[in-house]
Amino acid sequence: MKLHKLLIFLTIAFLFLMIVACGGGGGSIGYGEVIVHITDANPLLPEGAGNITNLWITFTDVLVHKSGGGWISLPLAGDSPYVIDLLQFYNGKITEIVPSVLLEYGKYSQIRLIIESATIRFDDDPTTDSPVIILPEHLKTDKNFILDVNKPEAVDLIIDFDLSQSLVVTDPFGKPSYKLNPVLHIVRAAEAATVKGEIAQGSFIVGQNAAVTVFIPNSGVQGGYKEYTKIEVSESDTGPTKFSIYWLVPNQDYRVEIKFDPEFGNGIDFSEDISANDLKPGRVWNLSGSTPIEISS
Fold this sequence. Notes:
Oligomer: single chain
Number of strands: 19
Helix content: under 10%
Order of helices and strands: HEEEEEEEEEHEEEEEEEEEE
C-alpha cells in the first residue's frame, strides 16, 4: 500500500512539474523567425516620370496584425525613420526593411507600412530633390496576406513595392506633380515564382524600350483582366535581350503582354497566358517556350 501511494505521489509530482514547465497548463509559447525585405521590379514609370533616377521613401514603422489579436510593431533594419531608395532595388535585388525578429506562433493577416515622406531626383538635375505628395490616407498602407507562423524556421517575406502602379503623375506635359499611392505585392521568398523571357534582336524600335505588362484576372469582370505590374526592358548590345519578372505570387493565373512600340500604342506584339497550375511555388516559367520573342510582321 505504501509503495502504491508513493507511486501515485510521484506521478502527481511529475505531472505538476510538467504543467509548470509548460506555462501553467496553457501550452508552451512557440516563436518563429521572420525577416522582411523590400524590392521593386524594373518599373515602367508613368508618362512624365521616365527620367527619375532616385525615389527615396522614409518609413517610420512596419507592423503586422495577428488574427484574434492586435497590431505588433516590428524593428526597422536601421534607425527610425528609415530611408530606402527603391529604384536601386530591382531585377531581383532586395534590401532588408525588417531584420530577423521572433513572432509568436499564430496566423498573421495584414502588414502595415507607415510612411513619413518621399522625394525624387531627376537625371537632368542630380543635386535637387523634389517632394512627392502622399495623401493622408496613404501614409498608412495596409496589405492583406496570410502568414502562418508555426515553426521555428525563418520565413523571409518579400514586399514588392510596385512603383509602376504606385507613382502617379498629374499634368505630365505641363508642370507635373507627383503622388505616391502605394501598391504592394507580398510573397514568401521561398515560394515566389518567376517569369523569364528573351526578345530577339531587331524586335526593338529604335530609341524605345519594350513595355512588358503583367495582368491578373479581374474578379469583378467576367473573363476580364486587370494590370498587376509593368516593367520596361532595354535592348542589350549583343544577342537576344533577356528579362525576368521576379517575386510573383504562385498558384495564380497571369497574362503577359509585350509592346515594342509603347509610345504610339500600335497594339500588342506578344501575349501569353500562364495558368496557376503552371506557376507553382518556386517555379520558373519561360515565355514562348524559351524561344526568343520576335516582333510580329
